[in-house]
Amino acid sequence: MIDFQIALIVSSDQEIRERFSRLINQIGATCVIEKDRDKALNRMLEVDVRLAIVDMEGDDRENLDFLSAVKKLRPRVPIMAITDDSTEELRNQLFNQGVYCCFVKPLAKKDTKEIISKVGEELKK
Amino acid sequence: MSASVVLSSKDPHVKNPLKAFFHERGYQVIIEGQGSSALLKALEEPVDLFINDFPEDGDLNLDIIEIIRKMKPRVPIVGLCANTSLAIIRKLSEAGVFYCAMKPIQIGEMEKVVEAVERLHVNKAKRSAGTIR
């Protein structure tokens, strides 16, 4: 069990929010869920977030700016990205923005184990 | 170095006249359509003024304003609203908005706002130099 570790989930997709919150609760951590990115940034200043899980939605530049804003506000918070674009170029851009791992949508059942392991790995640090 | 203004707006009726207005006054203007992109610019660059255009539809989203107040408390923030009811002005004021201008933008009003912001910066500089208290 992980005590009082908080993960922030940022997605406008209900399925992603529910799936990740279930997985996080399963490993004993708590999650804060935000649909809206501006609200998510504000919450990061209020809550001691240990991990940010960000759904890459819409425009690439806006996604990268959002990740940079997260890094500016909370440079030590690791970011996990969920994206529907599996190109090497985007992955490299995400890693350059400080993303430590990336999952491609739609998430398959077999991803669950890896997500749990990656989330747990960061929250246990 | 020229003074700089970050404008967060998606509306061309706001962006175009303000861009021309600030360029004319020698300001460097950074325009972003997304709140998080505008916030990033305000955090990365030295900013003299942050202008947030509140869209007519949807809730009054004060998150970006609140973050700027926390991270860069000395940056004056101007809000642009289509609806300037007392309740909205009060909310913006509580969030730390320096001035709330009504849309459509009146250039005469913006001139007065910019003069006030410039006086504010001059006074801050004097205070830092110890010439006024």
Describe the structure.
The complex is a heterodimer of chains A (125) and B (133). By secondary structure, chain A is α/β, with parallel strands linked by helices. Chain A has a single domain, classed as Rossmann fold, CATH 3.40.50. Chain A has five helices and five strands. Chain A has helices at residues 14-26, 37-46, 60-73, 88-96, 111-123, and strands at 6-10, 30-34, 49-55, 79-83, 99-104. Chain A has a five-stranded parallel β-sheet with strand order 2-1-3-4-5, with helices on both faces. In chain A, helix 4 (88-96) links the parallel strand 4 and strand 5 (99-104). In chain A, helix 2 (37-46) packs parallel to helix 3 (60-73). Chain A is globular. Chain A starts with 5 loop residues before the first strand and ends with a helix. In chain A, 36% of the residues are buried. Chain B has a single domain, classed as Rossmann fold (3-Layer(aba) Sandwich). Helices cover 49% and strands 18% of the residues of chain B. A five-stranded parallel β-sheet of chain B has the order 2-1-3-4-5, with helices on both faces. In chain B, helix 2 (35-44) packs parallel to helix 3. The two termini of chain B are 26 Å apart. Chains A and B meet through helix 2 and helix 3 of A and helix 2 and helix 3 of B.
* CATH level 1 class label of chain A: Alpha Beta
Kindly report how far apart the N and C termini of chain A lie. Answer: 13 Å
Beginning-to-end CA distance, first to last residue of chain B: 26 Å
- Mean pLDDT of chain A equals 89
Quaternary form? heterodimer
Shape verdict of chain A:
globular
- Please count the beta strands of chain B (DSSP E, at least 2 residues each): 5
